[in-house]
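Hi R.,

As promised, here are both runs. First protein below:
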Amino acid sequence: MRHYKHHEIDFEKWDTCINKAYNSLVYAQSWYLNIVSPGWEALILDDYKAVMPLPRKKKYGIAYLVQPIVTQQLGVFSEQKIGADILQQFVDNIPYKSYCLQLNSENVLEKSRQLPNYELDLKQNYDELFQTFSHNTQRNIAKIEKSNIVITEMFAPHEFLDLYCSTTKNYSEPDKNIVSQLICTGFERKKISLYGAYSGENTLIASLCILHSKNRLIYWLPISNDEGKKTMAMFAIVNSIIRRYARRSIIFDFEGSQIDGVARFYKGFGARLHPYCQIRRLRPRIIFDR
């Protein structure tokens, strides 16, 4: 196992490893990491047999690792499943004293903090999936279907970005420049799909950016304006996507939340809890801005 600086990484071999990994996630592809964590480094076992991205930052002359924004899970990736001993070896070889990282759900470490994620397996037909929705979710979908709101796939990233940048959010939003780069680059690479809810006046009132990750659809960036929130348009968008991809070997990944109301929205679609681990060491407040 060796620590590679950014310029030492063979990105072609890296992406091949990520794409073939049994626990592959788009967050770990080189194009994604280059945007959210410029200069990222890595731990690599043998000739890219297993890899772990190291999202490095520096503050007050101190180098440390921190989970990048809009990057829920990273950790160790490999084509073959690795045992707890190899996983622990990666963690033990992290070359920085201070870190806070989120591993993927296949990287299970005892005594680590667990964070919630919610997933829905779409292998059943739509009617069967609909029966697993909560009564509240079913009722909201039925109400919206009787309205004049239209759900459609969008083919202009700037339309999503205009809504995203102009809408007031009640949470700490990620850097708009990074979001713009991810949206545009991901769209070009066919790693992103955009869905919109339009009012009777053909006005975009809500939109959802879906991130494609192997056999996984990630509920990545949702946004609703006041009318979209009032009409609960996001219920209709998610329902439309589930209907479209039903009966396929695909996981709808809601990305999880520790906020009760948001988690309730996810669980309302029948999504099940699939936690992942967070590891941390020496996190002085003077350098950890996140």
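And here is the second one, sequence first, then its structure tokens:
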Amino acid sequence: MERGDRSSVVTPDHLIPLGRLVNVHATRGELRLLPYNPDSSTLKAGSRVVLRRNDERQERRVAAIRPHKRFLLLTLDGCDTMNAAEALVGCEVCIDEADLPSLEAGEIYHYQLIGMTMTDISGNVIGEVREILSLSGKDLCVVRNGAKEITVPLVAQLVREIDPVGRRIIVDLPAGLVDL
């Protein structure tokens, strides 16, 4: 139903975060990227990325990328030593929204779900989507209403409609999952 990259609130410059650089790999400048959506194939050799840390941003090109366990090993242009790679650990790897692949009818990117209101089929507000988690091939919505937080699987059995224009997700949840 949905595909895309882990969500975060879209920034004014329309950068979409794809993952975080969590460590170096070996000594030649390769970095371990923990992707927010392990199933995403958005990053490729030659991709233009923006490394973001707080208010600091720097543009780079992906020289090479390959899977390794739960990480992607990333080589960036201009980063060919361990010291250069260590300086980038902690940065979020982003792409410009305009560089995202086109979606097919009925698809939506994860980041577009953030901030949507989730309601049940009767129209009762469950809360606001705050985060999307991609775990073991399953996408989960973290929905918050005040101090309450629930996790709702994004599966066809529960999700009845996603309305991007109206910014809402209508779900049919099992009794007792949420107290309205």
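A quick note on the second one: Residues 138 and 164 are 21 Å apart (CA to CA). Let me know what you think.

Best,
J.
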